[in-house]
Design a protein that fits this description.
The protein is an all-alpha fold. It has helices spanning 3-7, 11-33, 41-62. Helices cover 79% and strands 0% of the residues.
Length: 63
């Protein structure tokens, strides 16, 4: 997900996005633990998206 797409969202929408990304991260971690994850790069992509959303939430809270 691109930062430009996220910047257009409101803080509430970003919160929902963060929640869904955290759930996705948990699911990927469980798949990795049970040896069912085939694409390990998904974990790092989700982590980066979580960081992007949290950064934008911090920016919106400061302004």
């Amino acid at each position: 997900m691109k930062a430009s797409e996220l910047r257009a969202k409101t803080a509430a929408e970003l919160g929902q996005e963060l929640e869904s990304l955290l759930k996705a991260q948990f699911g990927l971690r469980m798949q990795r633990a049970t040896q069912q994850l085939t694409n390990h790069t998904q974990i790092s992509k989700v982590r980066r998206d979580i960081a992007r959303v949290r950064t934008l939430l911090t920016e919106k809270a400061g302004s």
